[in-house]
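quick q for whoever's on today - can somebody do inverse folding on this one?? i tried earlier but teh output was garbage lol. tokens:
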């Protein structure tokens, strides 16, 4: 029996597309979320050049959770790395995602309260492996993202800032399913819009709800995310 006639692939593009959507929904969380600063609704790296964070995301039939580490200058370059896990409501198995991202933070006003950040990211997902009794299908996916985001800091009190943001990224993605040394794959390119706001406490602790909306991807659903992060290290002036 080969992949070409396996029931997994006979369910059509919907199952493979679901793998893409899952990878996609988590990409927003695990590669770019909280990797930047004001432009992405997070505390400025001037409060601490190192940021550690975690978050969770949910969409139709999938949830994910992961951790993130980022470093950056007060303005200028930043980079991040992350790992996340995806779990499915209709598949007995889970996926592991590893991602990296980088960008540049450009201040758009003298007060440095408005920022734009061009960004690039790469994420690879391995799994889930699907056991059908007569064989196992190994699945994987990757996505390369190119985009940018705008954000602005709005002081609410001496200890609280509101940082609304919005961004868009174009993703080049590919998912594969392998069984008995036979591989079937599918590519998808699409755009993802992300909107959210960061609640920054004492300039260092960020709590951020957000929604990501995929466009141009058939069957895709929006994902809802909640992330938090803490900046530390000697402030850079």
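ok took a stab at it. sequence:
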């Amino acid at each position: 029996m080969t992949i070409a006639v396996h029931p997994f692939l006979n369910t059509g593009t919907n199952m493979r597309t679901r793998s893409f959507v899952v990878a996609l929904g988590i990409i927003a969380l695990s590669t770019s979320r909280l990797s930047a600063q004001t432009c992405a609704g997070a505390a400025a790296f001037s409060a601490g050049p190192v940021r550690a964070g975690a978050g969770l995301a949910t969409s139709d039939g999938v949830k994910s959770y992961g951790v993130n580490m980022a470093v950056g200058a007060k303005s200028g370059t930043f980079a991040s790395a992350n790992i996340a896990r995806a779990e499915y409501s209709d598949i007995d198995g889970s996926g592991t995602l590893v991602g990296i991202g980088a960008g540049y933070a450009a201040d758009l006003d003298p007060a440095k309260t408005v920022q734009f950040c061009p960004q690039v990211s790469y994420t690879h997902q391995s799994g889930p492996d699907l056991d059908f009794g007569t064989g196992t299908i190994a699945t994987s996916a990757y996505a390369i993202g190119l985009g940018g985001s705008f954000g602005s800091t709005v002081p609410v009190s001496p200890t609280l800032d509101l940082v609304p943001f919005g961004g868009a990224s174009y993703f080049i993605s590919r998912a594969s399913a392998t069984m008995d040394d036979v591989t079937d794959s599918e590519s998808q390119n699409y755009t993802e819009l992300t909107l959210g706001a960061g609640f920054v406490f004492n300039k260092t602790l960020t709590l951020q709800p957000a929604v990501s909306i995929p466009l141009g991807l058939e069957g895709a659903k929006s994902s809802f995310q909640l992330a938090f992060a803490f900046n530390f290290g000697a402030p850079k002036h």
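fwiw The first helix runs from residue 7 to 10. also The helical segments are 7-10, 13-32. so keep that in mind when u check it
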